[in-house]
Amino acid sequence: ISEGPGNTKVAKSTAVPPGPPVYLDLVYIPNHSNSKNVDVEFFKRVRSSYYVVSGNDAAAEEPSRAVLDSLLEGKAQWETNMQVTLIPTHDSEVMREWYQETHEKQQDLNIMVLASSSTVVMQDESFPACKIEL
């Protein structure tokens, strides 16, 4: 946060400060993939083989289309074209539209969206699941 004209405080737009990249195997995109915390700089800096995208609340804009677009923009700036797998935790309208509208760019950037066709049943509850081998 910095002081703006008239001593009003102005929030900076980047959630992650610029710096060298960090490489990880698996990253959970923070705060239900809300764009208040994740931007292009996040994906330029936090490079992962797998990103988990949670959120299934259209009213709260989760997952955020801006975050999904930031992944494409951030990954386009990586020096290598390593495989990235996006793992959505819910089948949301935002995810489906983004997938269809950006599918060609995803392929160019070597991004795969993992759709789960498995179900885990525990006690009286069942939910979709996927297996990841690192």
TrEMBL record:
A GO term from the CC aspect: dendrite
Protein's GO biological process: axonogenesis; dendrite development; microtubule cytoskeleton organization; regulation of microtubule depolymerization
InterPro entries the record matches: MAP1
Signal peptide positions on this chain: none
GO molecular function: actin binding; microtubule binding
PANTHER family for the chain: MICROTUBULE-ASSOCIATED PROTEIN, MICROTUBULE-ASSOCIATED PROTEIN 1B
Designated name of the protein: MAP1B protein
Originating species: Pampusana beccarii (Western bronze ground-dove)
